[in-house]
Amino acid sequence: MPIKNNPHSFHIPVMGLAFTIDSPIKIAKYGISSVISIVDDILIEKMNEYHSNKFEIPFKAISSKVEDFRAKRITSYLNTVDTIVKQKFESLKKSFEEKNSEFEKYMEMLPDFSELKQNFVKSIQHNTLKEDVHNWIQNNLKSGSIDVNIMTKLDKVNYNKNEQLPSEFNDAHAALRGFANSNLESSVVLSAGMNPRLYSYFENFNDFFPDENNHLRKKIILKVSDYRSAIIQGKFLAKKGIWVSEYRIESGLNCGGHAFASDGYLMGPILEEFKIHKSILVAEIHNILIEALKNKGKHVPNNPLNLNITVQGGVGTSEEHEFLMDNYNIDSVGWGSPFLLVPEVTTVDSRTRKTLAEATEKDLYLSDISPLGVPFNSLRGNTNEIIKNERIAIDKAGSSCPKKFLVSNTDYSEKAICTASKKFQTIKIGEIKQDNLNSEESIEKLKQITAKTCLCEGLSNAAIINYNIEHKGEEQGVAICPGPNIAYFTKELSLKEMVNHIYGRSNVISTQNRPHMFIKELAMYVDYFSNKVDEFKDSFTTKNEKYLNTFQSNLNDGIIYYQELFSSFEFNKEVILAELEKLKNELFHIQIPVLVNA
Q1: Looking at the predicted structure, is the pLDDT value of residue 557 above 80?
Q2: Which domain holds residue 574?
Q3: What pLDDT score does 5 carry?
């Protein structure tokens, strides 16, 4: 069943900077939850102006010269989104009596097992008075949640002229403050690992503590890769008196955006561990929480607060969706990349959407383009890639770096610079030319440097292009980061078509050769492991040996788990088991080098 008070059993995760920047405005009225990235306050300011004008809401620009402008821009935009969503939702509820109304669309899209849908039918049958039906609608219909995402490690230090500002003005800290000060009653999704200083900053905002009714006005969702990570982070926050309301498990490789590969831990075994240990997780963290709340003199709940386990990364069929919910007691399933082909949901320019629809498996790959140095899911032929390569061809590699959200390198200056910037790449290219390397080595090193691209602009430009918003500076095109799953979705879709596909009322995938999401992820991990073995061959160390042995052992354990799991399948069992056996053999033939002691 869906999360309590959530009409649907799926949610839409954050995608890029622009692709879900205004998704709640489009779909929250239908009870569908989605996540806004609050990294880019420059884009947020432009979107605030655009939507304020469109919906006739007073707008006041916030200059970058204003103190705490980043947090204030984020608060202002989130309040604008909240206002628009509430207006649209009220309008939808009032449209009950109209044919082909928004209300009708809301009810039609609900899953057939929905208690809300069933209760509405009963309400109509037992109430002849319009007023009673209207009262039922007012009391029972729910809009989707307007959630936000913060990548915890994108927390760069900021300056006023040349003076370093206190840590609360760091990027992630300011983003958190922007959300905390907003009118929203929703969740912040924390991704990309633990940031202790940022986590401690939550204590400054009362909305994250339970009130006398055990209600959390603002909640925390932790995006995690495994159970161990969940319990470590959950306990850390509980010691501050902060409860994690949801652990959102994401595939390490079979996802969109940055790919944070686990040490060979696969999604199936990870979900099994959460299923087995959820009650222990709740009890242990609750005990830590109540002690912390007592020490702070805060309200202490008698019973553990609600905790949801959700999952995302590579799901593409109703069978997979239902299996995740039923077999692992999952509260909600994230559907991301397929929604990039749904204009009613995501903000993608028409050229990029067409490239996505035509993409095959070979067009989707793990790249080295991210300045963060983390593998990044990419689409061949995107306009950002085309423009970048044109610049490289005329010896003008690198971006002017107008936004500086991904700065990290301090090799050449006290203030960090971005490895995709013109400044950094010019220095590095100059060093290679001085090193007098042979042509093969030189070409390879140049490729590694110029591979990095401006994601700050690339991941936000779709909204600028889509809404014809004025934009100054050099052209960067659109970078897009779908998961491999997008290869099996081959045309633009309506919201209804996509939702019907999720709930098994129709099927929009034409190919018969789509692998099961668990098998696809396993194949990606075997390939990733093989590449790591090759990468370490020339400089093999004890640390590398330990890492590879652990990785291979975890993959082997995962394969054993899947052999048992899929043996009980009724649907497509023989095909899945044959694919599993093939991958098992591939893994067996990958030889880890033997470390020779000197």
Answers
A1: yes
A2: 515-598
A3: 67
User: How far is the C-alpha of 265 from the C-alpha of 487, rounded, in Å?
Assistant: 24
34 forms beta bridges with 12, 146
Full-model pTM: 0.96
Domain boundary among 325, 341, 357: 341
Strand 159-160 relative to strand 163-164, pairing: antiparallel
List the beta bridge partners of residue 223: 248
- Three-state DSSP class for residue 221: strand
| Residue bearing tokens 């690198």 | 398
The pLDDT value given to residue 4: 56
Among residues 319, 341, 363, which one ends one of the domains? Answer: 341
Q: How far apart are CA 40 and CA 154, in angstroms?
A: 11
Beta strands 308-312 and 332-334, pairing class: parallel
Q: Which of 268, 261, 226 is nearest to 247 (CA)?
A: 226
CB 457 within 8 A of CB 14: no
What tokens does 438 get?
């042979």
Residue 131 lies in a domain: no
Say how far apart CA 462 and CA 17 lie, in whole Å: 9
Number of compact structural domains in the chain: 2
pLDDT at 302 > cutoff 50: yes
CA distances (Å), origin 62, targets 68, 69, 75, 176, 404 = 10, 6, 11, 18, 19
Taking the C-alpha atoms of residue 268 and residue 330, their distance in angstroms, rounded to an integer, is: 12
Whether 598 has a pLDDT exceeding 70, the answer reads: no
Give dist(CA 182, CA 147) in Å, integer: 12
What gap in Å lies between CA 436 and CA 376, rounded to an integer?
31
Residue among 141, 152, 182 nearest 44 (CA): 182
Q: What is the CATH number of the domain that holds 267?
A: 3.20.20
* pLDDT the model gives residue 132: 84
Question: 177 pLDDT exceeds 50?
Answer: yes
